[in-house]
## 1
Amino acid sequence: MSTKAAVAAAGVLHVVATPIGNLGDLSPRAAQVLGSVAAICAEDTRHTRQLLAQIGVSTPLLALHEHNEEALAPRLVERLRAGESLALVSDAGTPLVSDPGFRLVRAAREAGIRVSPVPGPCALVAALSVAGLPSDRFVFEGFAPAKAAARREWLAALAGEPRTLIFYESAHRIHAMLADAAAAFGGDRRAVVARELTKLFETVLDGTLDALVARVGSDADQRRGEFVVVVEGAGEDGAARLAEGRRVYALLAAELRPSLAAKLAAEITGAPRKALYGG
């Protein structure tokens, strides 16, 4: 069989978006694909089995997660080459967005296998759509580092980003992450905390970072569930201010201790002190 004929005879890898909470958000096409493929590659087969049961589908499931994806991808590509079509899903939302699947998709594409999206729910897009912050240019940064020092350094490096910033965060770190963001970006930066989107207890809080730190810290209910944090970008003026702050800090730090140099540079330029020096 020629290479072209082999590719034509191969199956399709469908990348299928699933609900982030509300089952009604599963598209009819997604349900049809999940019921028609030879197998479904799922991040957590137990979670996906519950979804399939609710839509009356009994397609076999294969566990595909960060620990086995690299080893399993070649075997799945062979199945695709043999003519089987497969579906790839994550626990919720669009696969590969802070979820496994990249290695399988890349391997399939490198093998000439057709990879077809079945679009649908995505938590970051859902949050952005209701945030009321600029949406013409944005950057998705995923989950912040778990350890406080690394998180603060990471956020400080983003302080001058002019585009709207989008983060995912867990319940047990949401308050600390917001407090660190306020320190890095300035407490008056506008932001939105979207919690449990499409679910029963969905809330979308907006305000300054300082106000959101206080609100989330004072209400235990706002520290439960899954979170998307959307933060206004620094804007071109903010980015320029940060660049100037870092220039001044570098000059002052040559003669002064770093903490004092950062304090003075922040006062001179208006740049966030935490973005100049992590101490």
## 2
Amino acid sequence: MKWRDARRSDNVVGAGGRGGLRLGIGGIAVVVVLGLLLGRSPLEMLGLVTQIEQQAPAGGGEQALPDNETTDFVRAILGETEDVWSAIFEKAGGHYEAPKLVLFAGSVQTACGGASAASGPFYCPGDRRVYLDTSFFDDMKARLGGGGDFAYAYVIAHEVGHHVQNLTGVFARAERARQQGAAMQGADGLSVRQELQADCYAGVWANRAQARHQWLEAGDIEEALNTASAIGDDRLQHEAQGTIVPDAFTHGTSAERVRWFKTGFESGEVARCDTFSAARL
């Protein structure tokens, strides 16, 4: 994949450390004095401060990104998603608000709660950010379809697809349906339909990006399809527990994920990605 031709996004940021209070020696002295003035035990006051520190949200600011090829790659792919989706929204008479993509290591705090590298890449609708621990790329190399540049790009494009859903009201409609009793999990659940639509949107992006740059090389599509297949619910459940439980599906089967990515890629049309109305997933 000749990704170096893409424009670099300025919306890739590093995750900050824990926020909240962090007392130094001077701060501790102030707490002790205040405790004495208020007639409270200094140890009790310090204990309260410690509790506040421990409960303070993480992600207290953005940090500088490492200047390496991984960062450059992520900036290039995100930049291309911005250009493609901006053109699609503009043609439809709208405006695309690009998300930030947060690169983190180990763990991160978001508006959707805390997460670790084990969570894999994800999108948080609460703060409209994509989160990615780059160790996931190593995990892909080891077991999820073998990795490769276009496979990594597919993962990023899938999460950006969730951002597109958020902007177009899909998340809000799914939440209203859930509150009215619609099933989220299960082979025909809203969660599966939502994830498959994001796969289809990733395919639409790949189609449009290829038309712009002609940057795909032999084997690139296979990389993405291998990854889509490797992260199907049926395959992951079978590997983890030896059985397949469709009632617990949240993302779709391997075959469904491959099919919807191909639908988007072969058509390049957003309208072909209506998984919510599809009789067959």
